[in-house]
Amino acid sequence: MGRVIPGVLMVVLWLLLLFWAPPLLFWLVITIGAIIGLGEYFQMLKIFPGSGTMFLAIIISSLPVALAFSGSSTAVLTGGYLALLGIVLLVLKLYAGLDDGLSFLTRAGFGVFYISLCSACLVLLRYLPDGASWLLVLTAITAGSDTGAYYAGRAFGKEKLCPGISPGKTVNGALGGGMVAVFLAVVAAVMLVPDVSILKVALTAIVLSGIGIAGDLTESIIKRGTGVKDSGTILGGHGGLLDRIDSLLLTAPLLYALVVFGILS
């Protein structure tokens, strides 16, 4: 029950956000989520000399997603630049007291792009016409890939995909997850955005399924490098927030670009 109840609540909340909440409320929830995710990320790194400094880094790093309320990609990119500049200035101020200034700069800077900028793309996607529908298609791809990979891996998996990073992931699991992702993406697209090319949606689902796996493995690298099992405990048996959204983070920017440039039409 420790995993079932939080899982059901997350699904219900996500669907309510997509199809009931206005874009501004969606932005607010995603921004809060990004701040929580940044807190989990920085807590895992343990590179800050004090909690006050870490809090300041979280605020600085959240600028891209904070500026996404406008629905403007220009504002988000400006926020990304300002956040990176803020991290640089923070490193310059703290440099004398840091064990490794370069490590601090690269690790903190990565958080800006991996968590805040990618979260901002979720908001930008929501602001688009049919944005809620596209986000549901994206959710179908990432959730379908994850679930399909789990069961296909258990049933048919032998060859490890990345044993040094995640021993449980298998090649057959990834293939099975990709097939489930394609099926669910096509069903969701036919129901919600029927004017798009089904072939392009299927091909996109294959690519995004692979990127979602890469996003999951990226967080696994972070956890292995910092010696933690979960990014946090906020979701009970599901771990931290980053443990649940790692696939969405890397897939959202690409889907946003594909929709904006009309490639899926």
Characterization of the model:
This protein is mainly alpha-helical and about 260 residues long. The protein has 2 domains: about 20-125, no CATH class; about 130-265, no CATH class. Helices cover about 75% and strands about 5% of the residues. The protein is built from 10 helices and 2 strands. A two-stranded antiparallel sheet has the order 1-2. Strand 1 and strand 2 form a beta hairpin. Helix 2 runs antiparallel to helix 3, helix 7 packs across helix 9 and helix 8 (about 170-190) crosses helix 9. The radius of gyration is 19 Å and the shape is globular. The model has no long low-confidence stretch (mean pLDDT about 90).
Q: Report mean pLDDT, rounded to a whole number.
A: 90
Q: What's the main sheet like?
A: 2 strands, antiparallel
Structural class: mainly alpha
Radius of gyration: 19 Å
User: Globular, elongated, flat, extended or rod-shaped: what is the shape?
Assistant: globular
Query: Topology as H/E string?
Result: HHHHHHHEEHHH
Termini separation comes to 42 Å
Portion of residues within helices: over 70%
Strand ordering within the main sheet: 1-2
Our count of helices gives 10
Q: Which consecutive residue ranges, at least 5 long each, have pLDDT under 50?
A: none
Q: What's the domain count?
A: 2
Beta-strand share of residues? under 5%
Could you tell me the number of beta strands? 2
List keywords for this structure.
265 residues; 2 strands; 2 domains; 3% strand; 75% helix; mainly alpha; two-stranded antiparallel sheet
